[in-house]
Design a protein that fits this description.
The chain has 117 residues and is mainly beta. It is built from no helices and 10 strands. The protein has a single domain, classed as Sandwich (Jelly Rolls), CATH 2.60.120.
Length: 117
């Protein structure tokens, strides 16, 4: 979605129009972008993100990231501490930028996420 002429953007959590999300040329799920940057060119991204299962992805939080799990569950292993964070539908979480992780999915998963740097 694009703010274009309006000072706001809207979409629906049940949207079906997603595009592949690529990190270093490798597909890691799919995204439905609400915003790809902030209103003044600042680092601010917001999207719906989903993946099928089973799946596992290494993920570096490039900015501070907060999200709401809409469907499914995930096990997130924090590579620097060995901690494991388990999240399921209804949970909210926030991770600091620079955190290295491995996400493991055993069922389809969807989240709404906001990333800022």
């Amino acid at each position: 979605m694009d703010a274009g002429e309006h000072p706001y953007v809207t979409d629906r959590a049940d949207s079906t129009e997603y595009e592949p999300m690529l990190i270093d040329g490798v597909q890691v799920g799919e995204a439905r972008w609400l915003r790809a940057e902030g209103s003044h060119g600042n680092a601010h991204e917001a999207c719906l993100w989903r993946t099928d299962a089973p799946a596992s992805y290494e993920y570096l939080f490039t900015g501070d990231e907060s999200f709401h799990v809409l469907e499914g569950s995930v096990s997130i292993e924090l590579m620097d501490t060995g901690e494991r964070v388990l999240l399921r539908a209804g949970d909210v979480a926030s991770f600091n930028g620079g955190t290295r992780s491995v996400w493991t999915f055993t069922e389809p998963f969807k989240k709404f996420t906001v990333i800022s740097a």
